[in-house]
Amino acid sequence: MLPSFAIRALSFAVAAAMATACGSRPQAPPTFELSGSTMGTRYVVKVVGGGGDVEAERALAELVEAELTHVDELMSTYRAESELSRFNRHADLTPFAVSEATFEVFAEAARISDWTDGAFDITVGPLVEAWGFGASPASAPPSDVQVESLRQRVGFAKLQLDASTRSVRKLDPAVEGDLSAIAKGYAVDRVAEALEAAGFPRFMVEVGGEVRVGGTNDAGAPWRIAIEQPDAVSFQTIVPLVDAAVATSGDYRNFYEWEGGRVSHTIDPRTGRPVEHALASVTVVSGRCVTADALATALSVLGPDDGYRFAVANDVAALMLTRWAGGGFDERSTPAFQRLLDEAGVR
Ligand code: FAD
Q: What domains appear along the chain, each with residue ranges and CATH number?
């Protein structure tokens, strides 16, 4: 099951076409491009002005890979000795000291959980594993009895964060965290902020479909980020961005068929079950990717109507694609998302 590659950056192809179309090709500063694997998915980084010098490119590659490895080694449930896996095995009620990065992600997760009334909830870990979307594959969905028993271990209120000791305390020893819906976005932010600190304010960073852009692309235009159409190989729309982050959560990459139905990897903590509505994909634009990543999952849990109402009421820039029974998708964007497109002169 592949993680959602819901977003593709078309920055160079489109920018080059635009430049050629008006007959002039601006002297683009050398751009450095890097790609590879991380966290069970792919990453792509483009740094305007970062290319042209082997030593500088090597230093940039080391900077990017150091940030991605740091997050993977702290927050992976696929690494037995990661900080998160050790926290998950910490089966008592004493505080568990964590690194600054993990505490920051737990704190943002708690904020989004509180904001979305528990729709986003990193304590869904045991349910994610039971439904077959964790590090150890499951042969069949859990029984109703198993779901009810696992639900007792879930609830973001079962975690107590203490900033003064930078520790997390379980109020139920059986609680386990899953940061798959927020830590990739956090990793994108860390790479973005490291590039800015190194003097490269114009970049595009993508990890498994979560994206953050800095400044403009090599043609001096907004980065043009394409949002994939679920179940297809075409694009639903293209979002022009400058200094923003975008993340998509969908049910069309990480799912399996069971007894004629689609089992999504997005779990509703209130029922302990995968969501069953027709919302196929949610894209959120925000200042930070960690927030966009978590909000996209939260809106996926809330569903097409409650999710849209929440996003409008909170002025969240969101695009929702809902499956029509006969095929195709209903596209609904919030006023904040539409403002983004209007400001960029799109549509
Ligand atoms: P999103 O839509 O962003 O999030 C869905 C995921 O979040 C689900 O898969 C589940 O894990 C969790 N979730 C479900 N419901 C909720 C909810 N209500 N609230 C909060 N979270 C929820 N995958 C591998 O195959 N191999 C690896 O080695 C590997 N390493 C990883 C290391 C790290 C640090 C992280 C963060 C993830 C890793 N993954 C790995 C998982 C993979 O990268 C993706 O995170 C996963 O496939 C989901 O990505 P997504 O963008 O499709 O999901």
A: 4-76+187-207 (no CATH), 90-170 (1.10.3980.10), 217-343 (3.10.520.10)
